[in-house]
Prior knowledge:
Blueprint: H1 2-21, H2 25-51, E1 57-59, H3 71-83, H4 89-93, E2 106-110, E3 122-125, E4 133-140, E5 144-148, E6 157-158, E7 162-163, E8 167-168, E9 172-180, H5 185-201
Antiparallel strand pairs: 1-2, 2-9, 3-4, 3-9, 4-5, 5-8, 6-7
Amino acid sequence: MKRAAKADKTLWQKIWHFLWYEDSVASWVVSIGLAFILIKFVVYPGLGLLFGTQFPVVAVVSNSMEHDGSFDDWWMSQEDLYLEHNITKLEFLAYPMEDGFDKGDIIILIGTPPERLQRGDIIVYWGGKEYPIIHRVIALGDGSLQTKGDHNRGQIINPPFLDERDVQHDQIIGRAVFRVPYLGWVKIGFVNLLNAAGTRAA
């Protein structure tokens, strides 16, 4: 019995040494694979339960929420569009992430009941693309709402795939609460690498 326990301890010591101390290609590949599995199947679902959404962390993959130049310069280029929805500069300055954010940022989401959303909130929702859309709420309705990307010169109106004038509550994934700059480029780069590899294989 003691011999078996000693053998098990020795095995685990060898595994630990291989993963943590050994500086070989095989060790790196196995460690990265284990990290991916841990994040994908343990950490990410755990965060989803904690934050109340199945997508607690998203990478920004488009430029639709970027602001060009200073806030004042950006506002001058967009003012007429927001005034159509009775959104003033003073009101916009009180919105979360009033300076927008960039492609490659990471956004942390929490699940929020649609009736608790407010104008100016940034939400992530399904809109007919392979990846979710992250835009700002500019109008609230009964059972639906309207959104717009801060950088866009207007709302996306492309039914039946996406009509930003009529985003249904059941399309909403979560509300943005925190931004981590640049970290999303890791995911974007990895996806681009896989796509390039797939193209070459084809």
